[in-house]
Each structure stands twice: as C-alpha cells, then as structure tokens.
Amino acid sequence: MEPDVSIETGAMIRVAVLPIGHIPASLLRDYTSMLLRHHTIALSAVSSFYTEHQKSPFANQPWDSGFLRFSFVIGGCTSSPWEDFQSNRKIHSVIGICHCPSSPDLDSVTDQFNSACKGYTSALVKRCFAFCPSDSQLEDGSKKEGNLILFPPADRQTQEFHLNTMVQDIAASLLMEFEKWVLKAESTGTILKTPLDSQASLSSEEVIKAKKRRLGRAQKTIGDYCLLAGSPVDANAHYSTALELARLTGDYFWYAGALEGSVCALLLDRMGHIDPSLIDEVKYRYNSVILHYRKSSIQDNTQRVSPLSFELEATLKLARFLCRRDLAKDVVELLTNAADGARSLIDASDRLVLFVEIARLYGAIGYHRKAAFFSRQVAQMYLQQENRLNAISAMQVLAMTTKAYRIQSRATASEELLNDDVGSISANSGKVHHHSVVSLFECQWSTLQMVVLREILLSAVRAGDPLAAWSAASRLLRSYYPLITPAGQNGLANALANSAGRLPSGTRCADPALPFVRLYSFPLLPSQADIVKRNPAREDWWVGSVSSGPFIYTPFSKGESDDSAKRELIWVVGEPVQVLVELANPCGFDLRVDSIYLSVHSENFDAFPISVNLPPNSSKVITLSGIPTSVGQVTIPGCTVHCFGVITEHLFKDVENLLLGAAQGLVLSDPFRSCGSMKLRNVSVPKISVVPQLPLLVPHINGGDGSIILYEGEIHHVWIGLSNAGTVPVEQAHISFSGKNQDSVISVAHEMLKAFLPLKPGAQVMLPITLKAWQLNMSDPDTLSGRNGLGSTGQHFKDGNSPSLVIHYSGPITNSEDSTSDGNIPPGRRLVVPLPICVFQGLSFVKARLLSMEIPAHVTENNPIPTFGESDSSEDVAGSEIKMDKLVKINPFRGSWGLRFLELELSNPTDVVFEINVSVQIENSLSGDNLVSDQDAAEFCYPKTRIDRDYSARVLIPLEHFKLPVLDESFLLRDSSADGVSWSGSFSEKNAKAELNASIEKLISRIKVRWQSGRNSSGELNIKDAIQKALQTSVMDVLLPDPLTFGFRLVKGHAEVSDNVETLNSKNSVLANEITPMEVMVRNNTKELIKMSLNVTCRDVAGENCVEGSDATVLWSGVLSGIKMEVPPLQEARHSFSLYFLVPGEYTLVAAAVIEDANNILRARAKTNSPDEPIFCRGPPFHVRVVGTA
After folding, report:
1. pLDDT band at 162 (very low <50, low <70, confident <90, very high)
2. Distances (CA, A) of 46 to 42, 49, 83, 162, 231
3. Do residue 12 and residue 143 come from a single domain?
4. pTM for the predicted model, two decimal places
C-alpha cells in the first residue's frame, strides 16, 4: 500500500528527486521547495518544447485546457512490483539537485548522477540541476553535453523562472516518450505481469488464458499512459476496451484496475466540477471496483500475494473523495470496512499505512477521537520496534493525538489560543468561560489520558528527546497526581530530574509541572505611599479623589462588582512592589523550587526571584516583588518557575479554570484544598499602570514610634520628621487631619512645612505639633474597669480613637526624564501618620455647684468704685490691680466683697499626685460698652491645690470678674413684645438658647484649670460641661451687674484723694471720739437717669442699728435717710456725712435705695411682675474698725 493515495493519483507522473553530492539541508529544502511548486504544468506551456515526430496516439489531447501532473518523490524510492499494473507507480523521471559550491567537480557530479539513475530503469527523462555554479563551472559546463543543467547565480524570482522552464522541458520530453511507448505497445504489444501471475510453469489452458488477457491488459496500460499524458478522453476509450476484454476473459483484477482508471479519467474530464450526479456515479463505479478486487482476492487466494491491499486502497480513495461533513456517514462506513480488513493484511508496513490513512481521513471529517485511536495504533506499531527512529516516529504520531485527548502541550497549541490566553489575561482574567473548562477537563478520560502520556514519555525516552520526555512527565504529574501512587509520583519526579540532566542549563518548556501557583492578593501600599489622582485645575488638587490604598477602585472590598474595567492598580517607577501568590505541592515528595518570580511580558518591569521549599502535601503563601522600570502598562499573567531543572511559566488563568472545574466536579481534585489551604475567592489581575517617579515622604516621630501616654487633658509637644526618600522633590504639600478626636491637635506648623518647599530628595523637615489628650468616654466599659495607671491592665488605647496627620503632597507637574505617554500629569500622594496617643483616665469630676458669699469690705480713703475713662491707660489699671489681693479681688462695680464661686469637686483615681492651678483672665480696660480683646487681658493665678492619689479635693473658681460693665437694654430686652407688654419673663426665658450658650462659653474661656504631675506632665482640665451645668439657671446673676453700685470712703480735709491707691491694710481703722468725715458714692450702671431715695445705716457687731434710739453709740451729722438723689447714666453721685464713734469696735455701713419711676430695664433686672412694685437696691456691707478708748 502507498500513503496519501486518491482517485487522481492515477494521473500523476512520479519523479524521483535525488540530492547529488554534498548539499546543506537548508539549501536542499530551499531547492526542493522551488521544485514542488511546479507540480502541475499546463499543456499549452509545453507546446514550445514539444516536437511531434510522428502522429500522436493521443488524438484528443486537450492542448488548451489539459495539464500534466507531477508527483515529486524526494530522495527517491524503490521500484514497485505492481508497476505494470498501475503505470503511475513507475518512476518516469529522475531529477538530481546539486549545489555547485559544495561540489566543485562537475565531472564527478555527472558520474554520481548517472550512477544514481541506474536504480531507476523505468525513468524516461533524466536531468541534473546544478545551482549556483562559479564562472569556471559555467564555462566548463557549457562545453559538456548531457543531462547537466546549470542555474547561474541570480535572485529567487529569476531562478524560479529558470526552473519552471526546465520543468516544462522535462514535461515535453516525457510527453514525447509516452507517445513512443504507446505507439510501440499498439504495434508490437507488450508483456505485463503482476505478482499475482503464477511464476510456475503454465499449463496449456493457462497459456491460452494468458494470451487472451494480454490484449485487455495492454489496453488498460495504454489508458494509464493516456492519463499520464493529460488526455482523459483517449484514456477513457482505451479503458472501455480493456473493461470489455477483461470481462470476457474473467480478469477481475485488471478489470477493477481499468474501472478505477476510468473513474480517474471521468474526474479529469470534469475539470474539478463536482455535482451530486458525479458523486453518485463515482460511488457506483468504485463500489464495483472494490467488489471486483474482492472477487480477485477470492479467486487467487491460493497465491502467495493477496490483492487485498488494492481493495483497501480503493476504499481509501473513495473515502477521500467523499471526505466532507455531509457525507460523513458514508466515509465512516468505508473506513470501518477498511479497518476490519487490516486484520487480513500480511505486511506490517501495509497495516501501518492503512492506519495512518484512516486516522487522517477521520481527522478530516472532524472525528478527532477516532483519528486519535488509529494514530495510537500507528504509534504502537512503531514502538514494537525498539530503535530510535521508530521511537521518534511514535512520539510524533502520539503528539498529534494529544489535542483530541485534551492533553496537548502548550507548545503545540495554536497561536490564536495562546494569544487569547496570554494577551488578554489582564482584560478578561476575571471571566472564566464554562465551555472552556469542560473542554479542558473531562474526568471520564483520566485513565486513557494517562496511558497516552505514558506512551509519549516512553517514546521520548527511547527517541533520546529529553525535552519531550520532561514535557510528558510534567503533564502526567500535574494533571493526574490524585490517581498516581506516591511511588509513581516519585518515579515521575525522577524522570523529570533525569530528563533535565540531559538538557542544557536554562532550558524552557511550555508545560508547567509543579507547584500549582495561584494569585493570592495584591497587598495595599503602606499609608505613606497612597497615590491620589491629581486635578491641576484646582489648588486643592486632591479633593474628590479616592485614595484607599494603591487602587483607584479597590477590587478587594466586600460585595464588589466583577467588572474588570473598573480595576486599576498604579505602580511607580523605581519603587518596589509586592504580589502575594500561593504555592501548593499535593504530591508525596519534597519539592524544591529553585527560583520563582513574576512573569511580566512587558519590558518595563524587573522581577526578583526567590527559592522555596515545599514539604509533601503542603501549601505556602509567598511574597514576590519587583521594580517597575519605565512608564506604561504592566501585564502579569502568571509566574516563571525554575523547578526540576527546567524553566516554565505558570499562568494564573490555568489554575482559575482548574479550581472552577474542581468546584463543578469536572476535575479530579483541588490541589490547594487537598493541601489544607482555605478556600480563596478568585482574585483577578487588575489593569496595572506605571507612572513616573514620585516623591516619597517617610515620617518619623521624635522619641520613637511607641505610644504617647497622656492623661486626660494633658498637653504634649511632639516633633514629627518628614524625609523625602524619593528621587524627585516635593513641590506642593498640605496638612490636614482625619479620624476621631481631631480637636486634640491644638497646633501644627503649617507655615514651617511650606517654608521648606521644595523638599529635595534626601532632605528632612521637623514639624512641631501640640497635642491635648481628649476626654475619655465614661460610658466605655474599658474606662470603668479597674485603675488606670500605667502599670494597670486597663489601658485605654484604641486604634480608631487617635487622630491622624494627613499630608497631601506632589512632585513637579512635568518630569523631563520620564513622562507619561498620554500626556497626563503624574499623580500625587497622601501620607497618613497616625498619632499614637494612649490616653489614661486622669482627674475626674465628681460634681460642680455655684456658691455665693459676702465679706464686708474695709472703708478706706481710696475710691472703692474705680471710674475708667478714655484717657486711662491699661498700664495704670494693671498697676492698681496688681496691688490688690490676688486671692479675692474687690468687684470694681460693686465696691464690696460680695462674691460668687464655682466649686468643682475633683477626684484622683490614678497612681500619681496632681497639683491644680486655677487662673482667671481679667480685662484691663473698658471702651464704652465693649470688652477688650483677650490678648490685653491680665491673668491671675490662685494658690495651687494638691490632690493625692485616691483622694478628692474641691477647687473654688471666683466668678466676680466676669460682670458686664453696663446693664444694657439691647442685651436685656431683645425679646420685647410688639404691644409693649411689661417684661414679666425671666432672662433665660426671653433669650434664645444660642445666646445663652455663647455667654457661658465666653465665661468658660476665661477660666483655666491646669494641672501638673511630676516634672514634665502637665495639662488642662475640660471644665466646659461642668460649668455649663452649674450655671444653667444662674448665669444672668453672674454676668449682669446691679443697677446701682454703692461704696463708702473716708474724707480728709475735704481734699481730693490722690490717684495713688493705698493698700487696704495701711489705713484700715478710725479713731473713737473724733469726727470722721465720710462719703457714700452711688454709681449708675445703666444708660438712663435714675431717681432714688437713699438711706445709710450703721450697725454694730450684733447687727443692731447704732445711730438711732436712746442707746445710740454713734453720733452723726448730715442726712442719713430719705436722701433724694439723681444719678446720671454711667456716672456716680456722692453724699457727704460725718460719724462720731463713742465706743471702739467693729461697725458695718450699709447703703440702700428705693428707685423711683423705674423703667423696664430695672424691672426686668429685678424680676418684678407688677409695675407698681417698688425697686429696692441694697449695697453690700462695708467694714469699719474703730480704735481708741471709750
């Protein structure tokens, strides 16, 4: 049997192509490729070379439309014993190919060619083509006559034209030789024999039968030559005669051959136009051909040679003619019959050819599994002969079956599939198509697939191909490890190692072995490396950008969408990046991974390899790193692994499909679950963009990175250093805060940071930050549990409670060294520095209440009611105040020691001692009705209060310094009704809540309660809530002054008192039995005139009136009761009188007045409901000490 036969094979002229001399293999392939292009020569093209010596036997030669067909046999072949039966089996021509530079002696070339041609006795035309001759060879060759044809050096197009001309010449020569042979056969006849003809002496009857058959066989052979000459009409005429003669003589074998030739002539005559009627005709005739071949086989079954091979060849020819999808049923039936006939074939080479052809035809109609089955039969026949060449053939045949069995090597996969798997991994990595999973993994094929891979491994080892052996062993181990025993797994590992030992170092293979590699996650960048998109149109370029790590869209948030177009990962040139991958070794041996690193197809990334050891049946999560080197896109389809001595690429998508197949029951096992790894949600590779170099600020907290331990309210100064670890300067920076308790940051040096810009690479700036510990939430169970000292277990530090310093910074807008290709400006960065504040419970409030008391003031020569004018300087006032007592100061608007105190009860639950210091800010001057600013206020400190641990103490805060200077109508009556109704409501009912809170906050802002513990720990208590609660109902009594202020002063000689104020202790007493001149002063604190009736009373220590009655101990001159006075607005009036004290002792002077015609302001301040109710004002007591003798 011959391979690759078809119905048209009978019209092909077989030409042997032989290499002459030494020719490099590449040149031989080049020359033969040029020759093979001329397998069809039109008869019209050979007419110029054709010479008709006598009348041609091909009367119906189609010179205009006919063709001569060549079948070039590279390397030649042996002669066939069936050449007389089928003329197309003969070698009709021999073409030698010589490369002149390798064979300089043309005589030797001619001798070698002539010697090679002796083996082809049937050759009618012989030519030797010598390519690239030198000038001397051209000159020498032109003198020689014979079959040597020189092809001078020229371009390929010229050489092909020259070669085409020479092939046309050969075609014309063969046509003329065919004419000679036909003419000779018609005139003299010829003896035609086949191996079926008996070689023994023939009986007389057989001799007679042979003579009768000779004419029919000759007509059949002439028809074969007519087909070779390209004249199907002439061939059909001769075949018709041969059929009739063979039928009459019972020569069924030659009858089938002639019928087969007639079908070939029919197809050639149709010029390739095939219709259903032609198909039916061909099927009918070829079924008759097969039938007659079978008859001849039965008839000649006694012969040693069986014609079964011709029956099977005819079956294959018909199957190849019908080989199309719509006729697949007929083709399968024919091929099934041919496969059944293989059992009767004696020659193993015939069975080999038959199985090859059956496999090819099954593959042509899409029956790939049947084709793979017969291909395995071919491979097994090769493997039966233990030699290297047969092993190579078996390996090549088995490699063709791997696609049908879904075990093909990646190297043999189509380029389209490779591009789809690798090129689009970043765009479609999140999508796994179900049909691809089903096609890749089919559990029911496991045993058969393992058998095929073992056969490939065995053939590769015999063939001496270590790379193919390594590939087969890797596929077998990776895909079917659950079905292989531990001993078998170790055997495959040894096979991998042995194959790698025969390979050069650094060999790559497309098929990965172990371990299994899957993408675990992309770690978020640290907080100081957050990347923020930059909006150049805004000064606050970071506003509106989301910087939750390196992702513009975070693909790892819960409930995320699978839309991969939204995922974008940004890396920076020159900055290391990390990717977490998980490795699994599900086999029973230790696995040593010599190196593994990220596989990046783009050239803008440098990956760093690491080595890993994996124990049996274990998995491990490792970190792979690298550095982007230039701007652009980065694609990471998987990892490159150097294991078992060979470098392979492990794609993440392959493992995703594997895990999906395991989840759906299509794959034998999940390698990660079998190694004890947790189930991991699929993490796809996002779109990765590399941006130019950016600045990188690295923070450092002075004093270390430990927690800053503070008590509640403690004030602490922290220095934070910022170093630019990047390669470009920081040109823009903005400081803000985030998180809880942002108000605990009192101040930060914004201007200092801006002053250091641009911050060059390697430069550092130190920023001072003032912190104040916040108040702990008392409802927190951690706060309420146990003691809160440093050594206690009740530490109150939560990650979410501390504020964070946020710095948005960016580099230059354009980078000359490396800029983005799309023209976008580089992004900025966000630095988040958590302030590690650990707050412990400090002093705690127990309760707060408002107290009031009156202490009589001493009557002196000084004016107890200072009057401030526009010309008074703050320095003078401050000087006078400094001379006053620091503990309790006289109220300048009441002239007495009437005081109000805020009492705070504090508890110390800590293990340290606290000292409390209360300070009050007092304004130094008045300007009209307004207070001066805080920076002009004088601060007075009161004596410190010590609170030991586990003890409580009370702190008194005087409130008298916070009186308003003027009782203003606009402040008191702003809720006036439209109909002029009297002011019956209280102030808290008449004013809005906002105004009340503003007043309280203003009061609180001037009171500071500071504490100190030890040498370096100090802070300030938050008393806002305590004071606000205590003053909620009495704030107006604290803030608003009385309408009238009373005071007493000693008068000497009716002279004006000096401006220099003397201390209260210098002249704090008067003499008994002497007339003492005095003045009572009344100040109007409103903006309207007040009319009143004034009374002055002097009382002794028992509280009895001592100026009236028979027992009076004080004599007086002047008026002490019913004094009518009018006091101008914001002015004072004086009334003089004298007292004569008869008895030394302690006395008290009290002034009181009844206001006449009180207006609405006074009634609202007095909280009266009736317009007829009198307004009574009483001044505080003034103390007078009388010394002397009675």
Report:
1. very high
2. 7, 5, 26, 14, 14
3. yes
4. 0.67
